[in-house]
């Protein structure tokens, strides 16, 4: 352990240093408070033994500076019988202990320094343990957050899963109803997906679904909730969005998918990968989440039965394929 001995009297400083060096400490010396403070800031002393009365900076002032720089450093004050009141002041200021000069025994120096060193070791160990616990707690929180995300995300596309969507959708409809807001639901699936899988294999089909999810996520608002409903079916919940805005968003998404250069798209019946889309809005298409979902589902199948690669939105004019 590194130890700093501070005293403006060279003989006493040398005696204390020799005793503590013999005890196994790595000892540095300073002849003044100013010199000691400079050495302390430049080094890593865990223990400081300083005289209380010195020309220039006093031992109390040095103690205050050391504690403000590193509260864990243990400081032992050396004082005379005539200055015991100052020693008590030093203890109240954070000193670990004090030694009275002249020393009754050199063993007393070793004993006090040994106890202070043990206190310094315990403080360092406790701080390290606290840091380890803090890191472990942070890692546990991160792991729990990751598990929470995994529980609500689809493993293939990283979109929200069916269960999370149902809960979020019900809450959004209830919120819209309570505050007189509007919301819309876009329900869509990949046209002729079975043909794509049969032609290119399921791994390529999975890559197509992942690519589709990326298109949806990259062009959605932060408040929108995109989810994989099941298989090749997807949903996009648009809070505070009416029918007109939802149809516009659905058409933009449909067009992006149709224009995207998916691998093997030329083998599809329409010569490209496309989606059919149904759009339902609260409150005109239903006052409950289940009714809105059923409406969007029916509109989706109307789009598929009308030639695919199109958007159906009930009372709205359906989009025409590009």
Order of helices and strands: EHEHEHEHEHHEHHEEHEHE
| Unreliable residue runs | 316-320
Question: CATH first level of the largest domain: which class?
Answer: Alpha Beta
Describe the global form. Answer: rod-shaped
Q: How many discrete domains?
A: 2
The tally of beta strands, per DSSP, is 10
The portion of residues forming beta strands comes to 15-25%
Q: Looking at this structure, what is the CATH superfamily of the largest domain?
A: Reverse transcriptase/Diguanylate cyclase domain
From the alpha-carbon coordinates, what is the Rg to the nearest angstrom?
38 Å
Please count the helical segments: 10
Examine the coordinates and then state which fold CATH places here, giving the name of the CATH topology of the largest domain: Alpha-Beta Plaits
Average pLDDT confidence is 92
Strand order of the largest sheet: 2-1-3-4-5
**Separation, N- and C-terminal Cα atoms:** 79 Å
CATH architecture of the largest domain: 2-Layer Sandwich
Strand pairing plus helix content: what structural class? alpha/beta
Major beta sheet summary:
5 strands, parallel
Helix content: 40-55%
InterPro entries: CheY-like_superfamily, Diguanylate_Cyclase, GGDEF_dom, Nucleotide_cyclase, Rev_trsase/Diguanyl_cyclase, Sig_transdc_resp-reg_receiver
Keywords: Coiled coil, Nucleotidyltransferase, Phosphoprotein, Transferase
EC number: 2.7.7.65
Protein name: diguanylate cyclase
């Amino acid at each position: 352990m590194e130890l700093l001995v501070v005293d403006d009297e060279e003989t006493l400083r040398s005696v204390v240093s020799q005793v503590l060096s013999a005890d196994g400490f790595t000892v540095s010396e300073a002849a003044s408070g100013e010199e000691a403070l400079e050495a302390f800031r430049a080094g890593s002393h865990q223990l400081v033994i300083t005289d209380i009365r010195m020309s220039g900076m006093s031992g109390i002032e040095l103690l205050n500076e050391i504690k403000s720089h590193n509260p864990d450093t243990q400081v032992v004050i050396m004082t005379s019988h005539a200055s015991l009141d100052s020693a008590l002041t030093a203890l109240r200021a954070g000193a670990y202990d004090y030694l009275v000069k002249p020393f009754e025994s050199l063993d007393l120096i070793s004993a006090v320094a040994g106890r202070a060193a043990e206190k310094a070791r315990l403080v360092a160990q406790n701080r390290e343990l606290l840091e380890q616990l803090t890191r472990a707690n942070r890692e546990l929180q991160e792991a729990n957050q990751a598990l929470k995300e995994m529980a609500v995300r689809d493993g293939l596309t990283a979109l929200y899963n069916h269960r999370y969507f149902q809960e979020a959708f019900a809450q959004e409809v209830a919120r819209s109803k309570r505050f007189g807001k509007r919301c819309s639901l876009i329900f869509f699936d990949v046209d002729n997906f079975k043909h794509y899988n049969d032609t290119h294999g399921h791994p390529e089909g999975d890559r197509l679904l992942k690519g589709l999810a990326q298109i949806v996520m990259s062009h959605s608002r932060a408040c929108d909730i995109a989810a994989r409903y099941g298989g090749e079916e997807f949903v996009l919940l648009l809070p505070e969005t009416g029918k007109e805005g939802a149809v516009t968003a659905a058409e933009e998404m449909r067009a992006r998918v149709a224009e995207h250069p998916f691998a093997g798209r030329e083998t599809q019946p329409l010569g490209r990968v496309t989606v059919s889309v149904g759009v339902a809005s609260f409150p005109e298409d239903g006052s409950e989440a289940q009714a809105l979902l059923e409406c969007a589902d029916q509109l989706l199948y109307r789009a598929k039965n009308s030639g695919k690669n199109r958007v159906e939105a009930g009372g709205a004019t359906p989009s025409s394929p590009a």
